[in-house]
Amino acid sequence: MTNFEPSRQEALERLAQFVPIAGRQYATGRNTDFGPDAPSSVSKLSPYLRYRLLTELEVVTAVLTHHSLAAADRYVQEILWRTYWKGWLEMRPSVWTRFTEERDRQLESFSNAHTLAAAESGTTGIDGFDDYARELVETGYLHNHARMWFASIWIFTLHLPWVLGADFFLRHLLDADAASNTLSWRWVAGLQTVGKSYLATAGNITRYTNGRFAPVGLAREALPLTEPPIETARSLPAPARPVVGERSLLLITPEDMHPESLFSSHEWSKLRPNLPIDAAIVAPCANLLWGNGARLFVESAATDTALRTAAHFNCSANVSAALDAEILIKAANTASVRQIITAYAPVGPVADALARLTPQLAEEGISLTQIRRPWDEHFWPQAKKGFFHFKERIPRILSEHIIAEPLD
Ligand SMILES: Cc1cc2nc3c(=O)[nH]c(=O)nc-3n(C[C@H](O)[C@H](O)[C@H](O)COP(=O)(O)OP(=O)(O)OC[C@H]3O[C@@H](n4cnc5c(N)ncnc54)[C@H](O)[C@@H]3O)c2cc1C
């Protein structure tokens, strides 16, 4: 059974094991789901990438050390789907707000409770769908193709609201992510690429589960859902810069749990000697995540992260269950610093919490600066249009800005 140990060491071991198969084997095998206990061609790195216990940069760098970009382009592209969704939502934050409001409205008013309960408990009688509902709850993970089938059956066969399906995933996936989850559900529903929905068919499910499932009675068409127009892409907020020379407290949230590499880009590494980090706080913000599995995962990863942070920055690093202004002000005062630095929090509950904290800290004369990694800085602005437009820019951005060595 899939088991995700919440540590960076585990993430690195998984990455090392996966790298040799990240080329052709991944490209040809990635669509098949042999089951939770069977060997798989996918990396199962998503919980580690979600909380950035592993960064996209180091995964892509490791893969491209072993394979050419041409050989591993499928895998690199999948990693960049995550980045694309992040950038897309960052430029249209109201899509997330619209989702949460519609979800809350549906949770209050949805009347077909019997079908909803059957879908969540895996008792609809639909072969495969029921198994995936149970697998999700038991393991906190589903294969990508299974997520697509599940979402399609939820929307087009069971006629359940997509926002409640997205909510079910958020409550159970270890990798639950505001951007990847919401926008993938929207994509299946036909809202994301307007007019283009995803229809799960019995033949496709049987083929790509190696004959494990043969559902009957699935919808034969998937009429795309519709919605009022969404906002056009706005510009990303300008990158923030900490005051160089100022002593700082480092705040680590579940949006980025690898502070060791936060300052390792060419640009930041020059500034780093003049940015002394005197103390760190790791705030797993479990209360801001949606499910118990994800909460336990980040709480455990927080202990691991605090140990690594203390060793890397040679400073004290404490875990704080809560993230509030009082705790940060106390920590800043104890360390005698007026500047708090944290990794940029993308659209979601942690970003909302930081937005609420910032003016409270400012009242005490403490600044909170969110710095963006070069990976996000270069890729996110390219997510204004569709993934095809974004994908075409990947090799140039990788070779010009991200990875020093020339790529073929
Ligand atoms: C309805 C639906 C909901 C989803 N919800 C989430 C979610 O909440 N969190 C999440 O991380 N992913 C989500 N995904 C995307 C994808 O299914 C998972 O990232 C992937 O299955 C994770 O397994 P893996 O690590 O073995 O992937 P691999 O195939 O090994 O891919 C490597 C990494 O690339 C990224 N990735 C791969 N495929 C996608 C994709 N289609 N979209 C975005 N990133 C991708 C992930 O970070 C993944 O770990 C969702 C997809 C669908 C269809």
Verbal overview:
This protein is of the alpha/beta class and 408 residues long. α4 (56-66) packs antiparallel against α5 (73-90), α5 (73-90) packs across α11 and α9 crosses α11 (178-189). The chain contains 19 helices and 5 strands. It folds into 3 domains: 8-90 and 378-402, Serine Threonine Protein Phosphatase 5, Tetratricopeptide repeat (Alpha Horseshoe), CATH 1.25.40; 94-208, DNA Cyclobutane Dipyrimidine Photolyase, subunit A, domain 3, CATH 1.10.579.10; 248-371, Rossmann fold, CATH 3.40.50.620. The protein has helices at residues 8-18, 24-29, 46-50, 56-66, 73-90, 94-109, 113-121, 129-139, 144-157, 162-172, 178-189, 202-208, 266-271, 292-313, 325-334, 349-363, 374-379, 387-392, 394-402; strands at residues 248-252, 277-282, 316-319, 339-343, 367-371. The protein is globular and about 65 Å long. It has a 5-stranded parallel beta sheet with strand order 3-2-1-4-5, with helices on both faces. Flavin-adenine dinucleotide is lined by residues 30, 42-46, 49-50, 78-79, 81-82, 85, 143-144, 147-148, 151, 169, 173, 175-177, 180-181, 184-185, 188.
